[in-house]
Design brief:
The protein is of the alpha/beta class. The protein has a single domain (about 25-245), classed as Alpha/Beta hydrolase fold, catalytic domain (Rossmann fold, 3-Layer(aba) Sandwich). It is built from seven helices and eight strands. It has an eight-stranded mixed β-sheet with strand order 1-2-4-3-5-6-7-8, with helices on both faces. The chain is globular. The termini are far apart.
Length: about 240
């Protein structure tokens, strides 16, 4: 999957043919997809998309799954109207594209979304999950916003130089064993830093035989051998949120 002309960790994988159960709303300067729990809920989860943007059906599927488990789920456009990456785009231009979309510079969007959840949806307890690019965003938000009581980062890229030990609340890190873009030594280093310096609950889990994007970009019907791990990753994500929110 990785070569010099395709530096991006995010092959689209299995794009779900899925119509969401929620609706699109305007939240200050950005659009967002919102799906509410079947019964009234006062707990909400922000779902942060990958490079393919807030309209990817797979990410909306994850939001709807969270809603079915009793959460108000919101998937905002953290690119704030900027073009999402498309699989047909020129991969040689990817690095330049990414420079204009820093996953750590999203406070303006996060502020708007958290205000919307509290004031418009009646949310009192908040969490966040994010996939790939969104996983990096989760690292940032969980060190910045104390009102986010739980975070789940799914295959968010890490560098050796990154230190995300200053987590404010419990955070779960999901990684794939065969991720071409997150070497196992980086995951080991992350875990060592967290054990040494982190003052809140955390867990780092590696799923055997899985590749980048497995939880939200793999159809369990398409990859039967991976189905147990896809389901386990999704269940672990929900269990973590349930435990701390």
């Amino acid at each position: 999957m990785a070569n010099e002309s395709r530096p991006c960790p995010c092959g689209i994988g299995d794009r779900f043919d899925y119509e969401g159960c929620g609706q699109e709303v305007q939240v200050e300067h950005i659009k967002a997809y919102v799906c509410k729990a079947p019964a009234s809920a006062d707990k909400a989860v922000v779902v942060i998309h990958d490079i393919f943007g807030w309209q990817l059906p797979n990410t909306r599927y994850m939001a709807d799954m969270l809603a079915a488990n009793g959460y108000i789920a919101i998937c905002p456009d953290f690119f704030a109207g900027g073009e999402a990456w498309k699989p047909s785009d020129d991969w040689s231009k990817f690095d330049d594209w990414l420079k204009t979309r820093d996953a750590r510079k999203i406070n303006k969007e996060a502020d708007a979304v958290l205000k919307y959840l509290k004031e418009q949806c009646g949310a009192k307890k908040l969490g966040v999950v994010g996939f790939c690019w969104g996983g990096i965003a989760v690292h940032h938000l969980m060190m910045t916003y104390p009102e986010l009581k739980a975070g789940v980062s799914l295959y968010g890229l890490i560098k050796d130089s990154d230190d995300i030990s200053n987590l404010l609340n419990p955070t779960f890190f999901i990684f794939a064993e065969k991720d071409d873009f997150i070497p196992l030594h980086q995951i080991t280093l992350l875990e060592q830093k967290l054990k040494k310096n982190c003052k809140v609950d955390f867990e780092v889990k590696i799923y055997p035989g899985q590749t980048h994007g497995f939880v939200h970009r793999r159809g369990e019907d398409i990859s039967p051998q991976d189905k147990p791990y896809i389901e386990e990753g999704r269940k672990d994500m929900i269990n973590w949120l349930n435990k701390y929110i």
